[in-house]
Specification:
Mean pLDDT: 78
Helix content: 55-70%
Distance between the termini: 56 Å
Number of strands: 7
Structural class: alpha+beta
Strand order of the largest sheet: 1-4-5-7-6
Number of helices: 16
């Protein structure tokens, strides 16, 4: 609410600019009867209101989408914010229409009796869609959707802002909670109106695009992704039904529909190897001119030097360290950018076979996020893996894109 209040106070500057512009347009109209000052005033107002109201609607959408479980506790500071925000939004209105005033007064009664209205509609509306929030949402849609088509952009933006503050105040005072659908509806409708205004008046289009990109980025990063449910498909059932030697074409096509299921299987590690290595920083440094690399010593600046050889355990690590720490080498050749590397691993699991038949191999594709787990796995260990099944039709090995892998301590 505090951020919304700050943005609402900033929108009052739009009205001050309109007043100054109107003074000058009245002065110019004294010298000519043919000047269409009202049209120019509407265009100026619409251009000026894009940026401040854009921030307001983005904040409205961020609250319910990113923090859907956020609860407002009624306090003196919150009540003061609501009063100041409502007063500031009213001051932004420019000659409110009688239809809007009637809607605002009626909204108080509808919000107060929302639960009773939902109870009256319950016999005629399915239960999941009949609630106080749904009744209020349909009430808002009934007024604002036609209004956004009939009214100018500046007037519409001010009405949306004023209504939001009234609705938030009524919800917290009468219901003890904020609305669930209103911020999403008001924010979405306001953004659509602003997009049309930015295109029509060629104003603040860059700001609009940046805010939309920021909004989508925040939603993408912060929205939790629910892990896929592990299916009941076992290895023995899949092997018996889909990995037999003499499957018909129809049976193979049927087995293809297991693709995408999340399975949990166990097997014995047969081999671990690297499938792919990616290091974008190393690639960019290596493609710089040699003179630039040597003078800037960029690889050592961004990366690390090869350390002491005494702590190395494997023969390959000792040989690398001994070679890369030779005194006669250039400084660039004594450094590496391994901290920026990402790996994709392949783990081959020997799976249990049927009583009178050979076992099969399952190929696990493991991402860099499980690097430490993969490096700790040794050949012959039994591991349990959870991942998405990739079709084994036409392949010698069944493939799984791994989500999690661990030692199977029960085996």
């Amino acid at each position: 609410p505090m951020m919304l209040l700050a943005v609402t106070l900033s929108t009052r500057e739009v009205k001050r600019k309109e007043s100054r512009y109107k003074v000058w347009s009245n002065i110019f109209s004294l010298f000519s009867d043919y000047l269409n000052t009202q049209h120019q005033e509407r265009c100026f107002s619409s251009k000026q209101c894009v940026s401040p109201f854009l921030i307001f609607h983005c904040l409205l959408l961020l609250h319910p989408l990113v923090y859907p479980d956020l609860v407002f506790k009624t306090s003196l500071s919150l009540i003061v914010v609501l009063i100041v925000g409502s007063a500031a939004s009213i001051s932004v209105l420019h000659k409110p229409s009688s239809s809007f005033l009637l809607f605002m007064i009626s909204n108080i009664l509808v919000t107060w009796q929302a639960d009773q209205l939902a109870a009256l509609l319950a016999p005629h509306v399915p239960a999941p869609y009949c609630s106080a929030d749904t009744v209020l949402l349909m009430w808002q849609v009934g007024y604002f959707v036609p209004a956004v088509l009939l009214k100018c952009g500046r007037e519409m933006q001010a009405e949306l802002q004023t209504f939001f503050w009234e609705d938030l105040t009524l919800r917290i005072i009468l219901m003890g909670r904020a609305a669930s659908y209103t911020p999403i509806f008001i924010g979405s409708l306001g953004l659509c109106s602003l997009c049309c205004m930015a295109i029509k008046y060629k104003s603040s289009r860059t700001s609009l695009i940046l805010c939309l990109v920021m909004l989508l980025s925040v939603l993408t990063v912060t929205r939790p992704v629910k892990p896929a449910t592990v299916s009941q498909l076992s290895w023995s059932d899949y092997q018996t039904s889909c990995l037999a030697d003499k499957l018909t074409a129809g049976e193979q096509a049927t087995c293809h529909h297991f693709t995408g299921l999340t399975v949990q299987w166990s097997g014995v590690v047969d081999r671990v190897r690297i499938l792919q290595r990616r290091n974008h920083v190393e690639w960019m440094v290596d493609n710089l001119p040699e003179v630039v690399r040597r003078r800037t010593d960029l690889k050592c600046l961004l990366g690390d030097q090869f350390g002491s050889c005494e702590s190395k355990t494997s023969q390959a690590a000792k040989l690398l360290c001994k070679t890369r720490t030779q005194q006669e080498l250039e400084e660039e050749q004594k450094c590496h950018l391994e901290r920026f590397s990402e790996y994709q691993y392949q783990v081959l699991l020997a799976m249990p076979g049927p009583l009178f038949g050979k076992g099969r191999t399952v190929e696990l594709v493991v991402g860099d996020e499980l690097r430490h787990t993969v490096l700790a796995i040794k050949t012959g260990q039994t591991v349990r893996t959870v991942g998405k099944l990739v079709s084994g039709v036409g392949r010698e090995e069944v493939q799984i894109n791994v989500r999690d892998i661990s030692l199977d301590l029960l085996q």
